[in-house]
């Protein structure tokens, strides 16, 4: 059996910014160590360097721009994230959507540099399109459930199952994650039962009174 994966997207919550981002990353590292689950943190770009220096678990960027080194003021250069210590990146998050050609360019560049690519998608059709680009992961997140507290694995299980099916047909090497509204152990259990390899989540942990307890609950039914 494979070890499930939890990617904690810090987004731009104040609770997961700056010093509090480092705290949350340390807590995530403790949970990874105590449970043996693969926990990955995805902080804001400005926090990547310090977090990658201080925790052992993988750190992913939340986004990189489809640009090469040179004159692109204000852009996020993949090489900069690599040097800061990121070992992967989210791509095309619902809150940071990209053009198909740009997703393709970023996936190729990330792969060429041995980093991990996680392409986020909003439905079964875009999941199929994403799988043809051969990222390491496709993360299906129905936008209407993001931040809702209503778990995708319960509210729209057919979207997760449909994504798993279609990706299995297109490229079985691509692993599927699901996200949106996931917070409890039973939500993660349901995601795994639907064929996902893990979850991508944010508010259920970041905004919890006790994020460590919330993370431990998340992985309690694996
Ligand atoms: O990337 C994870 C995310 O979009 C899901 O957000 O707050 O519903 O866990 P949330």
Structural class: alpha/beta
Shape: globular
Radius of gyration: 16 Å
Order of neighbouring strands in the sheet with most strands: 2-1-8-7-6-5-4-3
Mean pLDDT: 97
Number of DSSP helical runs: 10
Which small-molecule ligands are present, each listed once? SN-glycerol-3-phosphate
Q: What is the number of beta strands?
A: 8
> Biggest β-sheet, characterized?
8 strands, parallel
**Beta-strand content estimate:** 15-25%
- Bin the helical content: 40-55%
Distance between the termini: 11 Å
Could you state the order of secondary-structure elements as H and E? EHEHEHEHEHEHHEHEHH
Task: Provide an overview of this structure.
Helices cover 43% and strands 16% of the residues. The chain is built from ten helices and eight strands. The longest helix is centred in the N-terminal third of the chain and has 17 residues, at 19-35. It is globular and about 45 Å long. The mean pLDDT is 97. Bound molecules: SN-glycerol-3-phosphate. The site of SN-glycerol-3-phosphate (G3P) has 14 residues, from strand 8 and helix 9.
Identify the notable features of this structure and list them briefly.
eight-stranded parallel beta sheet; globular; alpha/beta; 222 residues; 10 helices; binds SN-glycerol-3-phosphate
């Amino acid at each position: 059996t494979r070890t499930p994966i939890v990617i904690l997207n810090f987004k731009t919550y104040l609770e997961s910014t700056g010093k509090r981002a480092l705290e949350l990353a340390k807590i995530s590292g403790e949970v990874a160590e105590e449970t043996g689950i693969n926990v990955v943190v995805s902080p804001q770009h400005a926090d990547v360097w310090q977090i990658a220096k201080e925790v052992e678990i993988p750190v992913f960027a939340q986004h990189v721009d489809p640009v090469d080194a040179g004159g692109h003021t204000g852009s996020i250069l993949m090489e900069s994230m690599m040097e800061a210590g990121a070992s992967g990146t989210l791509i095309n998050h619902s809150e940071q959507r990209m053009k198909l050609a740009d997703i393709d360019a970023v996936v190729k560049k990330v792969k060429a540099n041995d980093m991990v690519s996680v392409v986020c998608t909003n439905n079964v059709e875009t999941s199929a399109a994403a799988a043809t680009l051969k990222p390491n992961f496709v993360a299906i997140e129905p936008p209407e459930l993001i931040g809702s507290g209503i778990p995708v694995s319960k509210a729209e299980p057919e979207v997760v199952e449909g994504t798993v099916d279609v990706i299995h047909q297109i490229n079985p090497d691509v692993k599927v994650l699901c996200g949106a509204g996931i917070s409890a152990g039973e939500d993660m259990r349901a995601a795994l039962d639907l064929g996902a390899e893990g979850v991508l989540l944010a508010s259920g942990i970041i905004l919890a009174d006790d994020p460590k307890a919330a993370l431990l609950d998340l992985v309690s039914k694996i």
